[in-house]
Amino acid sequence: MFFLLKNKSTTQGSTPSVFFRSVWENYQKMKRFFFAYLTLCSVLFFNACSKSSNVGADIFQKDNINLNFSDTFDINALAEPTESFVTLQGSRSVANSSLLGTTTDQPFGTTEAELGISFSLDFSVATANSIVATTSVIDSLVLELAYAPRLVYGDTLTEQSFSVYRVSETFPTDAKSDKKLMTSNAPLGQIKFIPRPITDTIVDTLSFFNRVSRFRIKLDRQLSTEIFTRDNMLTKTADGRDSIDFVKFRAALRGLVVKSDRATNCMLGVNFVQNISATSNPPASGMTLHFRTQVNGKDTARFATLTPFSWHTYLKTNRENSLAETSIRNENILDTVLLLQSGDGMAIKLELPTIRNLGKILVNRATLDFTIADSYDTTVFKPIPALFLSTLGGVPIEDFSVGSLGGTATRRTIDGKQVIQYALNIPAHLQRIVDGRQSTQLLLTSLDRTSSTARSIFYGSKSKVFPLKLRVFYTKI
Questions:
Q1: d(Cα 78, Cα 447) in Å, to the nearest integer?
Q2: What is the tens place of the pLDDT at every residue in 171-180?
Q3: Among 47, 106, 162, 322, which is most buried by a count of CB atoms within 10 Å?
Q4: What pTM, to 2 d.p., does this model score?
Q5: What tens digit of pLDDT does each residue of 276-327 get?
């Protein structure tokens, strides 16, 4: 019995030993198989990544598709003088600031900006009645102009000289006008100062409750006594009450023009919009009337404010004997450099004469690459904040003020050298050009407003350094 039991246990105990040996052998076989499989996959993966191939190209008919790309397209560039004159009327949003002063440089010539302003009363009927009261005396009328630190061009260490004149005609209200405003011969006031937009500020707690870079010009007292009358400021309502007559006052004042007395190679951008950082949102520029009136038999100092209603910039550029004038007359100059200036400045007309030679293609990506010419002083000719591309008819192609679309300046390193470059993305419009639905001509501009006189110089299409390029990645059908 013992033997049988022993024999039984021995016989039954050998069965799991054989089973596990079989499992172990199968495991080793599978392990070798998976190792070989993974090795094969790794070889195929690294071989696929080592060079390009038309994977899946066999599913297309070879006569219908050919994957390809090219970056060698001819670009012709022409200088295009531009004009832009902006007036803001009431709440119409056209320009937040306007230029004042002169700048002179050899590439672009001399740019002159005169500033015209129309004012509206910004006080109550009670204040108007106090001004015209027989016991009141007008002390002074002060023009206050604030300028933006980011809109100061040229030599800010040179003394500036500005004079104020009264407009002698109806003030323009058109959104765009190239008219030089006629003014009185004698100035109403003058000022000489050195603009220091970062360190020097004036705090006027009586009028605008704000700290900004500004300058003040005290105007002739005769103007105050002439325009601040009951007939010019007040009118009667149907029920016989007094009411401020804004239209009649603006017609009586007509407006003021501020001019630079001499070419001092400096230009300021004067603020007209409200300063959103201030608690009370005061206007940045305006006028203050200071007067005294009798209160209980004593003289009391009072003031009344006037806010800009409409402003107008006369902006003209004299390109005589400048590189800009030469480039307009001789298009070969633009083979090496391109000049771009906002306002009454320079645009660049581009033509793509060979792009349609590609035949039928699908444009995957297309960029126009412009590089700032560092052979010129980039501290003077700074990169323009944003470039805009349009058709010759002025229809915008893309809003390149959006950084992702390439209209803003970007620092890049090319062949070990740091450059400032714009890359304008135009795949959709280039597709329309290739299909014959759009002209092969484009217009490159800066801001088309008189709030900026930014100037930049780019390398041309035949520059040996960083030429203007049109890079296109496409699928040939």
A1: 19
A2: 876 655 667 8
A3: 162
A4: 0.69
A5: 444 444 456 889 999 998 777 777 888 888 888 888 888 888 888 888 888 8
Residues of the chain predicted below pLDDT 50: 1-20, 23, 48-64, 87-93, 198-210, 276-282, 401
Pairing of strands 234-236, 242-244: antiparallel
Q: What is the pLDDT of residue 287?
A: 92
**DSSP letter string over 56-121?**
TGGGS-TTT-EEEEE-----EEEEEE----BEEETT--S-SEEEEEEEEETTTEEEEEEEEEEEEE
pLDDT of residue 25: 59
Element (H, E) at 375: none
CB 381 within 8 A of CB 387: no
Domain boundaries along the sequence of the chain = 66-80+342-476, 85-318
Question: Nearest-CA neighbor of 112 among 120, 123, 103, 121?
Answer: 103
**Structure tokens given for 59:** 């599913």
Instruction: Write the CB contacts of 349 (distance below 8 Å, at least 6 apart in sequence).
Output: 77, 78, 79, 80, 392, 441, 442, 443, 444
H/E stretch holding 217: strand 214-219
Core vs surface per residue 324-338: b (16+ CB within 10 A) or e: bbebbeeeebbbbbb
- In SS3 terms, 400-430 reads as CCCHHHCCCCEEEEECCEEEEEEEEECHHHH
**String of b and e for 205-227 (b: at least 16 CB within 10 Å)?**
eebbebebbbbbbebbeebbeeb
DSSP string, 433-449: HHTTSS-SEEEEES--S
Amino acid occupying residue 327 = S
8-state DSSP, 368: E
Task: Tokens for 182, please give them.
Answer: 């006629």
CA distance 188 to 357: 64
Determine the Cα–Cα distance for residues 54 and 125; give it in Å rounded to an integer.
81
Q: What is the pLDDT of residue 62?
A: 46
